[in-house]
Amino acid sequence: MTDLVPVRRALLSVSDKSGLVELAQALAARGVELLSTGGTARAMREAGLTVRDVSDVTGFPEMMDGRVKTLHPGVHGGLLALRDDEDHVAAMEAHGIGAIDLLVVNLYPFEAAVAGGADYDTAIENIDIGGPAMIRAAAKNHRFVNVVTDVEDYAALLDELKARDGQTSYAFRQRLALTAYARTGAYDAAVSGWMADALGETAPRRRVVAGRLKQTLRYGENPHQSAAFYVDGAARPGIATAEQLQGKELSYNNINDTDAAFELVSELAGEAPACAIIKHANPCGVAVGATLADAYSRAFDCDRTSAFGGIVALNRPLDRATAAAITEIFTEVVIAPGADEDARAVFAGKKNLRLLLTDGLADPAAAGLALRQVSGGLLVQDRDTGAVGEADLRVVTKRQPSEAEMRDLRLAWTVAKHVKSNAIVYVKDGATVGVGAGQMSRVDSTRIAARKAQDMAEALDLGAIPTQGAAVASDAFFPFPDGVLTAAEAGASALIQPGGAMRDEEVIAAADEAGLAMVFTGMRHFRH
Length: 528
Ligand SMILES: NC(=O)c1ncn([C@@H]2O[C@H](COP(=O)(O)O)[C@@H](O)[C@H]2O)c1NC=O
Known about the structure:
It is a single chain. The chain is built from 19 helices and 23 strands. By secondary structure, it is an alpha/beta fold. Belongs to the PurH family.
């Protein structure tokens, strides 16, 4: 097995020119001959380096707006030839092909062009052809050839060359090849995903998804599972793009729960200051308030027991009063679109508390895909961007909800969208007072939510029953009147649900009988 291989000749062809000159200078200092394409060669020459043009090697000028530059046996032969195969060596000699030991390529910025709203033709011109062809050739021949596709690997390459006196090890080249194939794979995933969107194809024959490693994780959902976090490069504010200001490294469960918390609070962008507290991906308290601290305190009062060790998401920058209130109990993560100096100072005393800052809130209406793995497959659907407007709401009972009830119904509905099914949410005066999540029966969720509200009222010595006069949301229709009756027994005065059950008439009659106001949304929000 060929292990150490000297690097004598390199081909550099990069769109992202950061770090290029420093790399090329270091290679030149080692006596490596530099070959390059148009703009890359220009940048190196401007820095005083001696560079040979690829067109000199191919005998053809770069042509067709750069569509054809390196697609030539003079280049691909130099990348693909097996140096220990007599026939390959003879072919190189016969055709005057020089071996290329190092390929440094990064691709036309297709992903960035598309993210920036490029039109169809511009996107097409941003599809790199020669770059991926060379990357795949060099990666295939990693027994002899080094292929660098990320600027962040330049330093490791130079370290390797330094440590091995101008040579690289087989293991090193293997790792580079792995990265290279993942890069071309991700690139084509971006291109095919874009084409599927452009053609309105929701179910293309093959669906490719790609991600870039953001961090390795200590473990997965449980300590015996290994795990890592990959991001798709989208600019959406949230867990993938947030800046962690302080605190311990995020865990797998932190990432999952923080995502749920931030996506929920982002739905309350247009509201007063709002807070969502999440445990195990379900909200255990959501509230709006006069101030952020008020919102936090009212969310906390929904279920103080579950909020311990929870994730807190805010729809406004964290301020001192809210920071002080949060630090009174153990909290895993706080995520917010900013934090003022006073708040940062309060958190500085809690070294382990993770503080994540985002660039604004996420747009709940932004289209995208939601993926879920099942055994042997991938379920793909649109993100749940569904939202109901005034015109969609239909009061089906004799009694109309009051304005205050309608406000609470809308908040309860929004929260229910983010609760695992079967979801039942009681809201009173802009704060959840009971959440029933993840039950197999809807009536159980209704009972559990009311029971939890009752328990909290007793623990806090509130006197009044918090579900009295509450608005209740159900993520899907009540199939029977029992859920409605349970909510009515708990004192609820208004209900919101999709409607559409076979027994809607019975359910509406039960609501009328109990004097409830009930609104149908015509939209369901299952979440599993
Ligand atoms: N067509 C080709 O033969 C070709 N060969 C290399 N490229 C790309 O051209 C870019 C570098 O171009 P320049 O050196 O002119 O800035 C790199 O992103 C590289 O991947 C090509 N461009 C597109 O396919």
